[in-house]
Amino acid sequence: MPHQLEDLLERIERRDEEAFRILYDETKKGVYAMIAAIVSDRSTIEDLMQDTYMKMLAKLDTYERGRNFSAWLFQIAKNLAFDHVRKNVKTTVVDPIEDGNVFNRPKDAYDHPDDPSFEEMLSCLDPVEREIVGLRSVAQTPFKDIAITLDKPLGTVLWLYQRALKKIKKHLEGRE
Amino acid sequence: MKKNDLEQQIRAKAIQAMPDVYDRIPFATAPIGVLETKPKRFSPAWRTLASAMIALVFTAVTAIVVLSNENPSVYALETDAETIGYQVLSGAMFLQNEEVIDADPLAYTLLDSETSLFEENIDLFAETFAVLETLIGAKDDLAFRLSESDDPAFAQMIQIEVSTLDGETIAYQIYLNQTLRRRIASLQGEIRFLEDRYEFRYVRLSGSEKSRLTIENGMDTLVVTHQSSESSEMNFRYQWIQSGSPYRAVQLRLTKIEGVLSAELATQAGDQNLTIRMERAMMSGMPTLRSHYRFGNGAEVESGDVDVVAEFDPIQDRVVYRMNGQVQRGNQSEPVQTDQVRPGKGNMMPGHGPR
After folding, report:
1. Nearest-5° Cα angle at B155, B153 to B159
2. pLDDT one digit per residue (tens) for chain B, 355 residues
3. Most CB atoms closer than 10 Å: which of A85, A139, B133, B246?
4. Inter-chain contact A28–B11, Cβ cutoff 8 Å?
5. Distance from CA of A87 to the nearest CA of B (A)
6. For residues B73 and B91, is the Cβ–Cβ distance under 8 A?
7. What's the sign of the alpha-carbon dihedral A101, A105, A106, A110?
8. Contacts of A48 (CB under 8 A, 6+ apart)
9. In 10 A of CB B148, how many CB atoms?
10. Helix (H), strand (E), coil (C) string for B284-310
11. Phi/psi of residue B138, nearest 5 degrees
């Protein structure tokens, strides 16, 4: 995180909104990627992103300084998304075939070979691969942080990422 | 489709779909937890006692490790402070940057690929260059200074200054204590950069391994062994360990020619091997990282010469690292060129380098 994390957190504690805005801007891609890997409905993603930041603020006292903040925040997002899935299995499990209108995109967007949506690109991946691709490609999270977030060995994360990219590439080539 | 293009496409589509919920967060009224105060590592009384003990130990053993002198004129790094400091710094950098070139590219098969090894793994090469650019160069690019510690928990410190291609100077501090047990001298300490601290242990050995350094960042461990070196070169092996098991390794050979330190990174798996040689030089008046790599896969070979320069782009208001080169595969030779803005880290350590 380019800005000094501790400085930002201390300012947030003093209700400095500018500091919160910076933190939000620097972490929103990762939070989104983590939630979108688990949940597909756009309004649910919005709710969960909001919930993630609210919970982050409320739980700031449990964050241990010096630990990896992004991994901690993404874990909050992941837990909230899984909690939501457990409570609402039928409506939120990612299934692009069943739910062709994810992210409120027009359904025919999937039929256009040159314009696959983000969800369409990730539709060939399993949940863990979706999380890794989301965090890496979207949020540009370091592999080490992804490994911490997902509690997987670094080598496994690297391997899964390479494999996922190949699957996406093959999937996109197959739909052309 | 190239890997980079695919990643960019995924990123663009995701950002296109990403909602902005900032206005939905009632920051002004949201409950905020109070930050924990990080506990001090040592109580004042312990600190005083430790300082006194350290001073005694230091007085007794300082000549054994740091001031020992091994034919200093012939090696790439000349003093103990340089040799030890270099291993700690490079170990921390390699540990910090898991994307430094490793065995991953060796999964690449020349026959099956549309693009070159370099293009397929351009991110890995870029990050490898970013790490190594500050670990090589002339004396002015890489300076080590041993002094008394300004932290009473440690007896000594090594101040390190490195320079990036765009001329920025970055400083690191290594804090250390020395101990002597059963005639074996060892060091314990930590390297600091901003809020990050990596702890290390160093022990000098005899035989084919001259020393072993273990450095940790909590999750991962890296072991750096200084192997028996010949005349004007030094060889280090870096082995990553997770849950007690080694999972990858690279070999680094340092040579010094006319006062300039250059590096060769090598890794091997079965019939496949990759070496990248890097050195800093002035090219057309610009500081340049020159590299030559060779990838062998059985009888097939790909090689390339790639130069990296850092230029300030006034439009982006950022430093852009530009890679230009030529890749040779079989009888075919093709140019490669890429511009990229580094992800805000310069030499890939957190919070440092060009933004």
Report:
1. 100
2. 667 788 888 888 888 888 999 998 988 888 887 543 333 333 333 333 333 333 333 333 333 344 333 434 345 677 888 888 999 999 988 887 665 555 454 555 565 566 677 877 776 787 788 888 888 887 778 888 888 899 999 999 998 888 888 888 888 899 999 887 766 778 999 998 766 788 999 988 877 888 899 998 766 789 999 987 666 788 999 988 877 778 778 899 999 888 788 999 998 877 788 899 999 988 888 889 999 999 888 888 899 999 999 887 777 666 777 888 999 987 888 888 777 655 444 444 444 433 3
3. B133
4. no
5. 23
6. no
7. negative
8. A35, A39, A77, A80, A81, A84
9. 10
10. CCEEEEEEEEEEEECCEEEEEEEEEEE
11. -85, 175
Q: In residues, how long is chain B? A: 355
Integer Cα distance of A51 and A61 in angstroms: 17
Among B210, B215, B269, B262, smallest CA distance to B239 is for B215
* Token output for B353: 């380098």
ipTM rounded to 2 decimals: 0.78
The count of other CB atoms within 10 Å of the CB of residue A43 is 9
CATH architecture of A5-175: Orthogonal Bundle (1.10)
**Count of alpha carbons within 13 angstroms of residue B62, beta-carbon side:** 14
* Residues in CB range of A65: below 8 A, 6 or more apart: A6, A9, B35, B36, B38
How close is the nearest chain A Cα to the Cα of B121, in Å?
Answer: 11
Number of Cβ pairs closer than 8 Å across A and B?
Answer: 145
The chain A residue lying nearest B37, using CA atoms, is: A65
Report domain extents, chain B.
47-174+251-341
Cβ neighbours for A27, distance < 8 A, ≥ 6 positions apart = A1, A70, A73
Q: Name chain B contacts of A172, Cβ cutoff 8 Å.
A: 1, 6
Long-range CB pairs of B275-281, under 8 A, 24+ apart, other chains included: B276/B101, B276/B125, B276/B128, B278/B129, B278/B132, B278/B133, B278/B136, B279/B136, B280/B133, B280/B136, B280/B137, B280/B138, B280/B141, B280/B165
